[in-house]
Design goal:
- The structure holds 2 protein chains of 2 kinds.
- Chain A has one domain.
- Chain A is built from 12 helices and no strands.
- In chain A, α8 runs antiparallel to α11.
- The longest helix of chain A has 30 residues.
- Chain A is elongated and about 65 Å long.
- Chain B is α/β, with parallel strands linked by helices.
- In chain B, strands 5-6-7-3-8-9 form a 6-stranded mixed beta sheet, with helices on both faces. In chain B, strands 11-12-10-13 form a 4-stranded antiparallel beta sheet, with helices on one face. In chain B, strands 2-1-4 form a 3-stranded antiparallel beta sheet, covered by helices on one side.
- In chain B, a hairpin with a 2-residue loop joins β8 and β9.
- Classes of the chains: A mainly alpha, B alpha/beta.
């Protein structure tokens, strides 16, 4: 029985991951735990005392508001890290992509396997975060499980365009810059910690265009069971898929150019 | 009795189709021409070499043959197929040993081979079975379970060769297989490649070591600046482009040029190098006697057989390793 080529490349990623998954999962459990404790309970205790604030948060306890946002941001973080150093590593340092290019593996397979990998890693991270959240009574709900696919999609929407960028790089110098000036601002202003409606109009609209906000909205709606119309949900999903698709298209073209020059 | 016309080989009976056919092959990177219109054929079972210094266009040629680099001009066929349209099919039948190791240092030796076999769509069981056999062939069975990282350069090369054989290729491409290895590691590697050759595996390799080309190649082309300067078996190339013997005269530092006149008219020709004077003659000892008789006082003198290095020097005016 023949296995699709992209799955066989994915197999390579799994083989390597087998050695590091434990420490990986501990990290992705601990980090959101810290945020939930600090923001959710610490900051939250102040916010929950203010009725007007609670209303802005849709009458959710603050920790319940933040938690789904963390699902989406964690997925984005994991996806972005997986789409920077590992990509340039497989191109230039470890040369695994070069090794593959001498086999029947094609650029398309590499891109498809990267998408699978992003979904897999975002999924694991989201499940771990959901497990951490389940420890908080105000957050605990079956909705958390429903929010996991939304988080995975957020990871994909963010990871694929970034991977397309990484495929063109010959040095890693831009990666810390991306982390500092793109990922961190998104993390802070993507709607995870407060509703974007609190911000001036210009920043707000910037937030609306980023994939993260759409992922956060989906995660929050599904995790808390709050009202989000089917049409709005579809629009969020479509927008995230669009980013993922554009990223995949670009990555395929650029990987082809890089590997088969 | 089977008369299925689609399985009949094309062409005249008895004439085997070359595994590689290149005609006017060109590779350009922007304004730079790396390969400038070369012609060659490689026949099944042959060990074929590209000999030339760094930058001669050998690796670019190899990458075109390996279907990882589109051609910029001319014709290239592998197994009668066009790389532009049948890259995947061709790569299925190739084994590639790249110039720089591309083993996964996070994985074990055996895992490296198995996952590579998976890229050729072998089942896990089959890939594991072949990995075992191939590690035995490259004498690394005892390292199967160890990580790649601590292995020596020569061992990594052998793992890479084992890896390149996992799909039982019809054609094995080796780009500078022993560059950077110590002499002992090179000899182990040559021995393994020689065995492959005896088993009938078609080898195509690039090298800038003339001893490697002499050891392994049935036939080779000498490349320089993107072109083929000469083609033939190592022996024929030496016969054609060099004399039987070479007299090497080494004069005190800086004095080689002023002593050049001793070499004039002595043999067929001579070459002045920064550190010595080479005289191409049929009888080296006799030539040495004449030079001494003429009053030359070389610091050292050496008579040796001509090599491919001399062929290259004659054809291009430069040495292979600069």
């Amino acid at each position: 029985m023949s296995t699709p080529a992209s799955l066989r490349v994915f197999e390579w990623k799994l083989l390597v991951y087998r050695r590091v998954w434990r420490s990986n999962i501990v990290t992705s459990f601990l980090q959101p735990m810290l945020y939930l404790l600090a923001m959710g309970l610490g900051v939250g205790s102040l916010i929950n005392k203010n009725p007007a604030s609670s209303q802005t948060l849709g009458n959710l306890p603050y920790v319940a508001f933040v938690a789904p946002g963390l699902l989406a941001t964690t997925a984005m973080m994991v996806a972005s890290i997986e789409s920077m150093w590992p990509v340039i590593d497989a191109l230039m340092w470890g040369r695994q992509y070069e090794a593959m290019s001498a086999t029947p593996i094609e650029a398309t397979d590499i891109v498809a396997s990267h998408a699978m990998w992003i979904l897999f890693r975002s999924g694991i991270a989201a499940i771990t975060v959901a497990a951490a959240m389940a420890l908080f009574p105000d957050v605990r709900s079956w909705g958390l499980i429903a929010a996991v696919p939304a988080a995975m999609l957020s990871g994909l929407a963010f990871g694929m365009p970034l991977a397309a960028w990484s495929v063109t790089r010959t040095r890693e110098m831009s990666f810390p810059v991306i982390q500092r000036f793109i990922i961190t601002p998104l993390f802070l202003f993507g709607g995870a910690f407060f509703p974007l409606s609190q911000l001036p109009l210009v920043i707000r609209w910037f937030g609306y265009t980023t994939p993260l906000w759409h992922g956060v909205e989906l995660c929050r709606a599904w995790a808390t069971g709050s009202s989000l119309g089917a049409l709005a949900a579809l629009a969020h999903i479509a927008y995230l898929l669009l980013w993922a698709a554009v990223g995949m298209f670009l990555m395929r073209r650029l990987a082809q150019r890089r590997l088969f020059a | 009795m089977s008369a299925n016309p689609t399985h009949r080989t094309s062409g005249a009976p008895g004439i085997r189709e070359p595994l590689i056919h290149a005609e006017g092959l060109v590779k350009k990177f922007g304004a730079f021409t790396a390969v400038d219109g070369i012609d060659f054929d490689v026949q099944p079972g042959e060990a074929f070499g590209f000999l030339g210094p760094n930058g001669a266009g050998k690796s670019s040629t190899m990458r075109m043959i390996g279907c990882t680099s589109p051609i910029s001009g001319g014709t290239l066929r592998l197994f009668g197929l066009d790389p532009a349209t049948h890259g995947r099919e061709i790569r299925k039948r190739l084994g590639v040993v790249p110039q720089l190791d591309s083993l996964d240092s996070e994985l074990t030796v055996e895992e490296n081979l198995i996952i590579y076999g998976r890229y050729f769509d072998l089942s896990r069981a089959e890939a594991r079975r072949r990995a075992g056999e191939l590690l035995e062939f490259v004498q690394l069975s005892d390292r199967a379970k160890s990580r790649v990282e601590p292995l020596s350069g020569g061992m990594k090369r052998r793992v890479t060769i084992a890896r390149s054989l996992i799909n039982q290729p019809d054609l094995l491409l080796l780009d500078e297989p022993t560059t950077g290895l110590d002499p002992q590691a090179r000899h182990i590697l040559w021995d393994r490649l020689y065995r492959l050759k005896q088993q009938g595996v078609t080898l195509v390799l690039t090298t800038h070591y003339m001893d490697e080309a002499e050891q392994l190649c049935d036939r080779l082309v000498v490349m320089d600046a993107g072109r083929i300067a000469a083609e033939g078996s190592p022996r024929r190339l030496i016969e054609q482009h060099a004399t039987r013997e070479v007299l090497e005269l080494r004069f005190p530092a800086g004095a080689n040029a002023e002593n050049e006149h001793f070499a004039i008219g002595l043999g067929e020709r001579h070459e002045l190098l920064p550190d010595r004077v080479l005289v191409y003659v049929n009888d080296g000892d006799q030539a040495l006697a004449s030079v001494i008789a003429a009053g030359a006082k070389p610091e050292s003198a050496l008579v040796r057989r001509s090599t491919l290095e001399d062929v290259f020097l004659h054809l291009t005016g430069r040495t292979l390793v600069e």
